[in-house]
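Bug #77: duplicate submission created two jobs. Keeping one. Sequence:
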Amino acid sequence: MRMPLIAGNWKMNGSLTLVERFGEAFAEAGLSPSVEVCLIPPFPYLAAAQRALGGTPVMLGAQTLNPQHGGAHTGEVSGGMLREFGVDYVLVGHSERRALYRESDDDVYDRLLAALTAELRPILCVGETLEERDAGRTRDVVLRQVGAVMARLEPAQRAAVTIAYEPVWAIGTGRTATPEQAQEVMSEIRAYQAGFDRSLAEGMRLLYGGSMNADNAAELLAQPDIDGGLVGGASLKVDDFLAICQSAG
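Kept job's structure:
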């Protein structure tokens, strides 16, 4: 049985006040032990989030990392630094990193490998644009992105990876893939993993990451291959994010 994971990606949003509100809310919420929750704020808020969430079961995540351990890389953050702030999860290959900062499949692989080396749990983000979907290329694009990383890993490394399917056309647009559309792609991802190891495929968590909110979460999470969510805008709203977490538990 795969334990659901709900991860809230704040992107370049948030404040110290919001961090404190989340800490207070989750301290009182009494989350189900059958769901994992991870909050992913911007780097400057990690120390405050570590303090605010310290008495709760909520884990911390980071939005990216540099593949280097250290050195002359102004403005960058390494996996070892993230570990010092109690970070458990880290996103790699988010569509905004791929599009806005030109991260290639090789860049994504390097970052994921650095995360594993730092004993962080990577969440590999994959997904197609609207143009690619309309051209009937969803499967090819998504499995290329998955394969560019997973095919190069050792079996034990693959087992440490969570994959988030985030159709680019549904991120921050208010549009959401139907549960059936999301399930179709995520079943393809799981089938691809089975080519390496069937037990790996059965145990790997797959998250949906396209405008999940309090209204549609339960229906999406009811799909057999959706094991949680990578939540964007709704993760900035305490009540909405709590509702999503509770629907998963």
